[in-house]
Amino acid sequence: MSNQPQVGIVMGSDSDFPKIQNALTALDSFGISYVVHVMSAHRTPRLVEDFAKNARANGLRVLIAAAGGAAHLAGVVAAHTTLPVIGIPVATDLMGGLDSLLSTVQMPGDIPVATVGTGSGGAKNAGILAAEILAVADDGVREKLDAFRQKLVQKILDKDAALQEKLSHGKNA
Ligand code: RP5
Q: What is the spatial distance between Cα 77 and Cα 52, in angstroms, rounded to a whole number?
């Protein structure tokens, strides 16, 4: 794993951390270094601006921003950089996080945020998507992504074989 962090992860509150850990796990699995910070678009707007404006000069290549509720963090980060920004809408108690999802995904034209789903699958996809973006110029990461996909295929084949075995023994009742 290179020591230079390539992915910058920010979240609106420490309460978001347990919900986005799958993003970190995915990045770890591809050997990608990252930095993680709590910063809030409304509580610490200056900090967010500085982080986003300096991200490229600090060696970061992809940014991930996670927030819940009126979740403008990813959009604000994207406003201050032309690095690709992935938004994680953190689930809330309101309709499973529909508020976070719409706040993050519905960016007006000109300033894109690549938004993943709410929930643990979304956070995982944020990490994988960051890896795919880095893999455009990094063959080592691309090879790890290829191996990951191969494992997925094998997992499904194994599951299907187990199902066929179960059905052939009349265990479906
Ligand atoms: C957002 O408000 C955060 O991203 C978090 O999802 C939500 C609640 O934050 P706390 O009140 O738990 O700090 O800014």
A: 5
